[in-house]
Amino acid sequence: MNANEKFLNTFATRVRQMILQYEALKKENDELYALVDQREQEIKQLQGELSQAEADYNSLKMAKMLEVTDGDMETAQKRVAKLIRDVNKCITLLSEK
Question: Which residues form a coiled coil (predicted)?
């Protein structure tokens, strides 16, 4: 019986150790799942910020293109106005002769 009791005690000790290891691993697993969930939320947030930044960039790029176009329009309008004045001067000079 002594050998059987020793065997049972050893077996019970090993089972307790396995249960403790199981609980420790389960706790670690839960922590890792929580960490993964947290990282996924951060990724979603960063993807949203990236999408917003890309939209802002595209808006600014479009505004810059329009600004350049408006500048070109002003230059073109000034050039046309100068040409009209020059034509009017020529007409006035020809009319005087």
Answer: 15-63
Compute the distance between CA of residue 25 and CA of residue 80 in angstroms, rounded to an integer. Answer: 81
Query: What is the amino acid identity at position 66?
Result: L
pLDDT recorded at residue 71: 65
Q: Calculate the dihedral angle through the C-alpha atoms of 22, 28, 32, 38, rounding to the nearest 10 degrees.
A: 130
Asked whether residue 43 carries a pLDDT value surpassing 90, the answer given is yes
Measured at the CA of 61, the angle between CA 59 and CA 66, to 5 degrees, comes to 95
**Where do the DSSP E strands lie in the chain?**
none
Alpha carbon dihedral 60, 63, 69, 71, in 10-degree steps, equals -90
What is the C-alpha R_g of the chain? Answer: 41
Q: Token digits for 80?
A: 């046309």
